[in-house]
């Protein structure tokens, strides 16, 4: 009931936004009537396709569902830029008109109004094309050195390659995953960390597309923790599938790795909100480290959401690797991420704990990334100087 009410409100707001864009741009654009009619029809198509794309995963026929998702989610990404630029145009016109009025000049510039109405959709197309390319290319490698006090010499240069938020689903399939796996393995890491939100869909629909993850290879293995989207998609079945692929799933647990005579603790917690789906999966950093050997002073926690950092610092971890935020994925959503998460992207020191937040290796929803490039993260432990 709540979901349907939300969807109705979402559609209602979408109608208002589409009407706003149409009223502000179509009438002012310096084009002939056929182009204006086409623009109106495209806005109507966008209004219809966006909610269909969001709910396409509920359609039984997989090929049809994927095609509708592609159309709807691409339309959503484009309309997001179109709406933002339309609003920016109105602000600009208001400022120009106000400046003219204050200087005693004629208020309003027909040429500026017309040209800006045409520039907005053209710029939205350009930004969407750039964002599409950024989302669909293989994530580049980002190298990060984390300075650790009293780091054992054997762990100098210990390398963890982190991937996060791949979101295998309607628009991300096996080939996309294969390219990620090949790049990760090419880095020859000591350990691989998969920090959640691997999937957006059920095991029967996506198992073939996640199969390349079974090829991940590192000296000490590949470790995975659940993200919130695993719980939306049936966490227990996905945990079993990930284990079948050979990944070590850490559910408020740790392992001790011996690296050339030095020991390090690698722990993982369930998603920050997992307890609302399954009380037995409540995220617990203290439980994850319980029983770890005291002489293993390097303690790394894999936690999907950055806001696990408070509990991780209290539990005595050295480094937390997280994802979830996508770095905002595309403007202006990076500003809203800060309302929910303490960190959006990059390396931060928090209460003695290093926290690295990945911008994600895939994307969620619209195939679009602007100002928040995806990443495969190569984390190196180095002695603090």
From TrEMBL:
GO terms for cellular component: membrane. GO terms for biological process: lipid A biosynthetic process. The chain crosses the membrane at residues 7-27, 33-56, 68-88, 112-133. Keywords: Hydrolase, Membrane, Metal-binding, Transmembrane, Transmembrane helix. One of its GO terms (molecular function) is metal ion binding. CDD domains: MPP_YkuE_C. Residues 159-327 form the Calcineurin-like phosphoesterase domain. It holds the Pfam family Metallophos. This is Putative phosphoesterase.
């Amino acid at each position: 009931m709540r979901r349907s009410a939300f969807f109705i409100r979402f559609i209602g707001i979408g109608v208002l936004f589409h009407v706003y864009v149409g009223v502000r741009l179509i009438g002012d654009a310096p084009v002939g009537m056929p182009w204006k009619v086409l623009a109106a029809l495209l806005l109507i198509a966008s209004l219809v396709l966006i909610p269909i794309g969001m709910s396409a995963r509920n359609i039984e026929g997989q090929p049809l569902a994927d095609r509708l998702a592609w159309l709807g989610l691409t339309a959503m990404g484009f309309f997001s830029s179109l709406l933002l630029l339309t609003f920016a145009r109105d602000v600009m016109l208001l400022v120009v008109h106000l400046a003219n009025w204050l200087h005693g000049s004629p208020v309003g510039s027909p040429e500026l109004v017309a040209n800006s109405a045409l520039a907005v959709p053209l710029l939205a197309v350009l930004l969407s094309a750039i964002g599409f390319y950024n989302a669909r290319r293989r994530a580049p490698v980002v190298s990060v050195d984390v300075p650790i006090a009293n780091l054992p010499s054997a762990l100098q240069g210990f390398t963890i390659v982190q991937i996060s938020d791949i979101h295998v689903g309607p628009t991300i399939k096996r080939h996309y995953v294969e390219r990620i796996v090949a790049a990760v393995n090419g880095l020859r890491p000591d350990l691989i960390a998969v920090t959640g939100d691997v999937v957006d869909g059920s095991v029967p629909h996506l198992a073939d597309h996640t199969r390349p993850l079974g090829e991940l290879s590192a000296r000490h293995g590949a470790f995975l923790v659940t993200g919130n989207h695993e719980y939306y998609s049936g966490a227990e079945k996905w945990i079993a599938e990930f284990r079948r692929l050979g990944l070590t799933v850490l559910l408020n647990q740790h392992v001790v790795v011996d690296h050339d005579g030095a020991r390090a603790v690698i722990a993982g917690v369930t998603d920050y909100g997992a307890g609302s789906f399954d009380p037995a999966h409540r995220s617990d950093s203290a439980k994850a480290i319980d029983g770890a050997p005291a002489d293993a002073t390097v303690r790394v926690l894999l936690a999907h959401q950055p806001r696990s950092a408070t509990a991780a610092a209290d539990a005595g971890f050295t480094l937390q690797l997280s994802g979830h935020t996508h770095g905002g994925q595309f403007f202006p959503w990076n500003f809203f991420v800060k309302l929910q998460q303490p960190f959006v992207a990059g390396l931060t020191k928090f209460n003695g704990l290093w926290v690295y937040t990945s911008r994600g290796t895939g994307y969620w929803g619209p195939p679009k990334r602007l100002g928040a490039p995806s990443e495969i993260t190569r984390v190196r432990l180095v002695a603090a100087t």
